[in-house]
Amino acid sequence: MEGTSKHTWRTKLHEIIYEADTPSGRLFDVVLLIAILASILFVMLESVQSFDEKYHDFLNISEWVITILFSIEYIARIVSVKKPLKYVTSFYGIIDLLSTIPKYLSLIFVGTHSLVALRALRLLRVFRILKLTRYIGASTNFIRALKMSRAKIGVFLLFVVILCVILGTIMYLVESEEGSGFTSIPRSVYWAIVTLTTVGYGDIAPATPLGQLIASVIMIMGYAIIAVPTGIVSSEMTRFSTKSVNTNTQSCSNCLAGNHSDDAKYCHNCGHTLHD
Amino acid sequence: MEGTSKHTWRTKLHEIIYEADTPSGRLFDVVLLIAILASILFVMLESVQSFDEKYHDFLNISEWVITILFSIEYIARIVSVKKPLKYVTSFYGIIDLLSTIPKYLSLIFVGTHSLVALRALRLLRVFRILKLTRYIGASTNFIRALKMSRAKIGVFLLFVVILCVILGTIMYLVESEEGSGFTSIPRSVYWAIVTLTTVGYGDIAPATPLGQLIASVIMIMGYAIIAVPTGIVSSEMTRFSTKSVNTNTQSCSNCLAGNHSDDAKYCHNCGHTLHD
Amino acid sequence: MEGTSKHTWRTKLHEIIYEADTPSGRLFDVVLLIAILASILFVMLESVQSFDEKYHDFLNISEWVITILFSIEYIARIVSVKKPLKYVTSFYGIIDLLSTIPKYLSLIFVGTHSLVALRALRLLRVFRILKLTRYIGASTNFIRALKMSRAKIGVFLLFVVILCVILGTIMYLVESEEGSGFTSIPRSVYWAIVTLTTVGYGDIAPATPLGQLIASVIMIMGYAIIAVPTGIVSSEMTRFSTKSVNTNTQSCSNCLAGNHSDDAKYCHNCGHTLHD
Amino acid sequence: MEGTSKHTWRTKLHEIIYEADTPSGRLFDVVLLIAILASILFVMLESVQSFDEKYHDFLNISEWVITILFSIEYIARIVSVKKPLKYVTSFYGIIDLLSTIPKYLSLIFVGTHSLVALRALRLLRVFRILKLTRYIGASTNFIRALKMSRAKIGVFLLFVVILCVILGTIMYLVESEEGSGFTSIPRSVYWAIVTLTTVGYGDIAPATPLGQLIASVIMIMGYAIIAVPTGIVSSEMTRFSTKSVNTNTQSCSNCLAGNHSDDAKYCHNCGHTLHD
Question: Which of B111, C149, C265, D193 shows a CA-CA span of 20 to 30 A to B74?
Answer without folding.
Answer: B111
